């Protein structure tokens, strides 16, 4: 094989070459088939190889692919903006288009800070976030992220923003009710705001369901309602990071819709274009945009590819496809089936401490001892072993480990395309079961279990 000069996730490791995809399946050039059990990075939510998206892509490219946003708007961009305003809750009507989830959360962060500046509160510029969170890899987004492993090398360069505990029901204090736990976790936000002073706090950011740093950790009811109350009390904006949970993934249009809470800003990515093109957005309310319009009138953010017609046309076609095939409803229905099958696995297999999730965003947490919930030491690489074994058997699943560092050890995300059928879910479960059971055996042989 030709020498590679591509910097890959693991240097020195060789990766199979993908050849094509269809539905929930990906194929490599050697003819192996893989179930895309995590939609890549929880991205390919309408499945692979959808013809009508390719057609929309071609049609836009034939007229114009790129026109700079400082020069032109376009039908594709305007229609996408209008479609998202329809989808998003309440007065979240405005979209700032970017190309990745990191850019989306970072743009939301900037808009929040600028909003307070325009209102004359220049010191309101800190963002409070949570441990066990992931908001992106660029420095601003990483500053807000409570993903311990991804932060470690860069800590001295990161902006200083307080982090509070997320609700993590599986590991809540023994004997505490979910209701009391929800309030205790949310009230940490009030404590953090009071410690640094509300005059220094621009916004609070959270993922409605914790993804990459926890493995589909769902908050108890009441948590986000209390967060909203606290934000209102201290004039702090609430940013919902819907990069992973948005556009139907959890069985509602957006994750936060499960609790009927209205964010001030929302970050979207991943499922917004289902992987057919890089596309993401920061969405803001009427109040925020009208305030900035009355002030400087210019949002200080943006990238070369922001609001390019090509990506907008593809994303619009994806949203229309989701609507036409009722994939939000399907995610709710089939996601419930997937979770019930994962819970059966959790009952059977000693390695699984908990199966959890919402809609088609599910997770498994692996433990050394099911009774005490004792985690494996991270160095034993249990998640990596399970992912590798599943890959060998033709199943892709996504790690959600690093964020748990110091709290717990191992978790994965199971989040197939929203189009998956129940038969395909059964096929996924069978491979998952074999993979976990095989790693269990290996750990026993090494006397690690
Ligand atoms: N926010 C959340 C909740 C995410 O899951 C991710 C990606 N895993 C990001 C932000 C960053 O998105 P991207 O990788 O597209 O920059």
From TrEMBL:
<dbReference type="GO" id="GO:0008483">
    <property type="term" value="F:transaminase activity"/>
</dbReference>
<comment type="similarity">
    <text>Belongs to the class-III pyridoxal-phosphate-dependent aminotransferase family.</text>
</comment>
<protein>
    <submittedName>
        <fullName>Aspartate aminotransferase family protein</fullName>
    </submittedName>
</protein>
<dbReference type="InterPro" id="IPR015422">
    <property type="entry name" value="PyrdxlP-dep_Trfase_small"/>
</dbReference>
<dbReference type="GO" id="GO:0030170">
    <property type="term" value="F:pyridoxal phosphate binding"/>
</dbReference>
<dbReference type="Pfam" id="PF00202">
    <property type="entry name" value="Aminotran_3"/>
</dbReference>
<keyword id="KW-0808">Transferase</keyword>
<dbReference type="InterPro" id="IPR049704">
    <property type="entry name" value="Aminotrans_3_PPA_site"/>
</dbReference>
<dbReference type="InterPro" id="IPR015424">
    <property type="entry name" value="PyrdxlP-dep_Trfase"/>
</dbReference>
<keyword id="KW-0663">Pyridoxal phosphate</keyword>
<dbReference type="InterPro" id="IPR015421">
    <property type="entry name" value="PyrdxlP-dep_Trfase_major"/>
</dbReference>
<dbReference type="InterPro" id="IPR005814">
    <property type="entry name" value="Aminotrans_3"/>
</dbReference>
<keyword id="KW-0032">Aminotransferase</keyword>
